[in-house]
Amino acid sequence: xxxxxxxxxxxxxxxxxITAVAEAGPAAExxxxxxxxxxxxxxxxxxxxxxxxxxxxxxxxxxxxLSPGKVLMKLRRPQTRIALFQKTSELGVNMVYxxxxxxxxxxxISPHGLVSQHNEAYPENAMDVGDRIVGLNDELLPAAELVExxxxxxxxxxxxxxxG
Length: 164
Hints:
The chain is α+β, with helices and mostly antiparallel strands. It is 19% helix and 32% strand. The strands form three sheets. Strands 6, 7, 8, 9, 10 and 11 form a six-stranded antiparallel sheet that branches. Strands 4-3-5 form a three-stranded antiparallel sheet.
C-alpha cells in the first residue's frame, strides 16, 4: 500500500496486523535506517497512525487523510508462543478469519474447552482474546487450511502470536 506494507483486516473492530513489508517504499526506507527493535515486522499490529486510533474498519480513511512526510505509528509487537493440545473435547474458542488471512483471530474463549484448560495449566503461556493462531505443528499456514487440517487431528500444536 501507500505506506509500504500490507495488512490483514480480519475483523473491522480489531487492529490491522502487518502481513508483509515491501522491499521499496516508506516502510522499507524506515526499516533500513532504524534500530532492529524499531523495524516494522510481520505480525505487528497497528494501534495508531498519525496520532489517530486505528482499527481495520477505519484504516483506509485514516491513511488517506495523512499529510505527506513522516508518519508516527504506534504498534503492538507480539510474543511468539506454542501451545500443545490433545483433542479430548472442543477447543472452546470463537475464531474469526478470512480465506486469505495470515492467521486466525481469537474472538472469545469459552470457560469449558481445551484452550481454557491450557490457560489454567500454563498461565504464563496463555492464549487470549485478540491473539492470532498462525501455525499448526511448526508449519505456517493460511487460516482456512489450518482450520481444515486441525479438524482431523487429535494431537497438535498451535503457533500463536500473543499481544497481551
